[in-house]
Design goal:
Strand content: 5-15%
CATH topology of the largest domain: Aspartate Aminotransferase, domain 2
Bound molecules: pyridoxal-5'-phosphate
Structural class: alpha/beta
Strand order of the largest sheet: 1-7-6-5-4-2-3
Number of domains: 2
Distance between the termini: 52 Å
CATH superfamily of the largest domain: Type I PLP-dependent aspartate aminotransferase-like (Major domain)
Shape: globular
CATH architecture of the largest domain: 3-Layer(aba) Sandwich
Largest sheet: 7 strands, mixed
Order of helices and strands: HHHHEHEHEHEHEHEHEHHHEHHEHHE
Helix content: 25-40%
CATH class of the largest domain: Alpha Beta
């Protein structure tokens, strides 16, 4: 055992698990959790139960249940308005996480380079490293977390195998424009590279904006894996159902990994989701308005708080910039509770707007530019306005027991941002 060498020596437990564990330890409200906290639609529960009762308890087809893949294809016809073949192009995966992992393993090998933007979802880089590749991380430019395509161009080479792209972006809350997709297309064409497009927040775009999917970009559609998650849209992350859409040739390669990675995905859950989507085909279309109302409520409540609120174009997060009243030490800000106490003492009406228990540093997303990050769950925050949880939250903060959910990112003090999540369900409850 002493000769054992970790393949990921510097990787600890994901920040999201750490955060939830810490919340339990402190008996604190966990505003930073990265998952929805609502009851799921009872109809979905019923459909899962029915699927169990009717005996869908053996292996599902490796590629995914055809009825679910057909519903996925029908959904993509509505938004983003593309036609995909459910048989050869759609694979049901164990959440988006497995789709990401399997696509990376299927395409990246020893010596390959992969472009990833900072900040980025935390599973990307470990997957690249396990595949034997190397991530080249490109910071999103400030202000606004925009793409510096010239910088990307300078970092791409004959070794570039894959570009990891995410829109709507977690945690930046930005939505890539069509010009970004054109620039990406030109670069991957030039270097004969592939794209893995993480579109798990795809329906959640605000203010009449549009999500530009790689699937709707004629050139990118030919060289991209697009990854989605029912956890996000059905408010049921525990069902662990996601999917990957790619051209047939790429899908074949993906499935070579998928079949030996997970083989197949929960049969009853697939049945239930297929049935649910058939009953509620418009469900995803309601999500943007649902979250936009929450975003607006949060922004209104935080107006005048001292936080600067960058635009939130999509996802269920809201970035908060706390540099006006706290040093760029997100860990101290959250762990000691001092930052929140400072904020609470001067800037908030404690009977009304009470943010507590920040969570989830941008370090979790590998942001290199000195950003400090906090995340709290918007829905839980809204619930604080109710009686008991609000008092409990206040006690938690005043006793200095706020959650340790953040990390200092090293780097300069220039960009202090934190982010807040808003969550909900496809049924718009
Ligand atoms: C950007 C992004 N990609 C992928 C995932 C993983 O999705 P899933 O829960 O379906 O594995 C998440 C979850 O938070 C995410 O935020």
């Amino acid at each position: 055992m002493s000769s054992f060498r970790s393949k990921l020596p510097d990787v600890g437990t994901t920040i999201f698990t750490v955060v939830s564990r810490r919340a339990r330890e402190l008996d604190a409200l966990n505003l930073g959790q990265g998952y929805p906290d609502y009851e799921i639609d009872p109809r979905l529960t019923q459909l899962v139960t029915d699927a169990m009762r009717t005996g869908h308890t053996q292996y599902a087809p490796m590629e995914g249940l055809m009825s679910l893949r057909e519903q996925i294809a029908a959904r993509l016809t509505r938004d983003p308005g593309v036609t995909v073949d459910p048989d050869s192009q759609v694979t049901v995966t164990l959440g988006a996480t497995e789709a990401i992992f399997s696509a990376i393993l299927a395409t990246v090998g020893a010596g390959d380079e992969v472009i990833a933007f900072d900040p980025a979802y935390d599973s990307y880089e470990p997957a690249v490293r396990l595949a034997g590749g190397r991530c080249i991380r490109v910071p999103l430019a400030q202000p606004g977390f925009t793409y510096d395509w010239e910088r990307v161009r300078a970092l791409m080479s004959a070794s570039t195998r894959l570009v990891l792209f995410n829109s709507p972006h977690n945690p930046a809350c930005t939505v890539a424009g069509s010009a970004d997709l054109d620039a990406l297309a030109a670069l991957v064409r030039e270097h004969d590279a592939l794209v893995l497009s993480d579109e798990v927040y795809q329906p959640i775009v605000f203010d009449g904006g549009r999500h530009h999917s790689v699937l709707a970009h004629p050139e990118l559609a030919q060289r991209s894996f697009a990854v989605f998650s029912f956890g996000k849209t059905l408010h049921a992350t525990g069902l662990r159902i996601g999917y990957c859409v790619a051209p047939a040739a790429l899908t074949r390669e993906l499935r070579k990994v998928h079949q030996f990675n997970t083989f197949s995905i929960s049969h009853p859950a697939q049945h239930a989701i297929a049935g649910y989507l058939a009953e509620r085909p418009q469900g995803a279309g309601e999500l943007a308005a649902f979250f936009q109302a929450k975003r607006d409520r949060l922004r209104t409540a935080l107006a005048g708080s001292g936080f600067v609120l960058p635009p939130a174009q999509g996802t269920y997060f809201q970035l908060l910039d706390f540099r006006a009243f706290a040093p760029p030490d997100d860990l101290g800000f959250a762990e000691r509770g001092q930052g929140w106490k400072d904020v609470l003492s001067g800037r908030f009406d404690l009977d009304g707007d009470l943010p507590v228990n920040p969570d989830g540093g941008l370090k979790a997303f590998g942001h290199p530019i000195g950003a400090s990050g906090l995340r709290m769950m918007f829905e839980a925050w809204l619930q604080l306005r109710g009686e008991a949880p609000e008092q409990r939250a206040l006690r938690t903060v005043v006793e200095g027991r706020s959650l340790a959910l953040t990390h200092n990112l090293g780097g300069g003090p220039g960009e202090c941002v934190s982010f807040v999540s808003v969550v909900g369900t496809e049924r718009g409850a």
